[in-house]
Design brief:
Blueprint lengths: L1 E4 L4 E4 L11 H4 L5 H24 L3 H27 L2 E7 L5 E7 L12 H27 L3 H26 L2 H28 L1
Parallel strand pairs: 2-4
Antiparallel strand pairs: 1-2, 3-4
Helix pairs in contact: 2-3, 2-4, 3-5, 4-5
């Protein structure tokens, strides 16, 4: 079931159907797609390793830059089109309609009645750990390059932040829904924190 966001022409596809069947728990703890899990981490970790060791391996900046950008590009394509779909059942893409308007589509795989397509918890942890941690590392590299005046590396680092940040944003949108849902979740969280602090202060005052 598609939902049209009138503000930014974004379509969201309904997320996972709730399913708590006990017979599926054993399957969720196994890595069902080892090759996808390997390449989900291989390209992004390799790009980070090359960035850290490139000055020790070679004196050619161009060779290092090209290698890192190729690894980042392969990672972007693999995560966007393959590993996200196989490991967590999520996918996002951009499509242009007949009127020439661009739409972002966020899709989540529905669970079958037999549970044969449920995501593995181990794969889900690997997917989200790699998806969240690596962009944070590139952000650290960006500040490091900026404050150490390594201007020539800024383009490479910014490429890492953009490509991996785009996948992170896309899959978060797939997971939690539209921007309205994101705003609602943030508002609810802040409201709960404020309520807890208020209750704690009242308890301290009463005591």
């Amino acid at each position: 079931m598609l939902r049209q966001d009138s503000n930014d022409d974004i379509e969201d596809v309904s997320l996972f159907d709730a399913d708590d069947d006990v017979s599926r728990r054993s399957k969720k703890s196994k890595i069902r797609h080892p090759v996808a899990s390997f390449f989900h981490l291989f390209f992004r970790v390799s790009a980070i390793v090359v960035y850290l060791l490139c000055e020790l391996l070679t004196s050619s900046f161009i060779a290092c830059m090209v290698t890192i950008i190729l690894l980042l590009s392969c990672d972007f394509w693999a995560v966007k089109n393959v590993t996200g779909r196989l490991m967590v059942g999520l996918r996002w893409w951009n499509q242009v309609d007949d009127d020439g308007r661009s739409h972002w589509v966020f899709e989540a795989r529905k669970v079958s009645a037999q549970g044969s397509k449920t995501s593995s918890e181990a794969e889900s942890r690997i997917f989200w750990l790699g998806l969240i941690t690596c962009p944070m590392i590139w952000v650290i590299f960006a500040f490091s390059a900026l404050f150490s005046f390594k201007v020539k590396w800024l383009a490479v680092v910014v490429m890492g932040v953009v490509l991996q940040g785009a996948n992170l944003y896309g899959y978060i949108r797939c997971k939690v829904g539209s921007r309205k849902n994101l705003t609602s979740m943030a508002t609810n969280y802040l409201g709960k924190q404020f309520l807890r602090q208020t209750v704690a202060k009242e308890d301290q005052t009463a005591s």
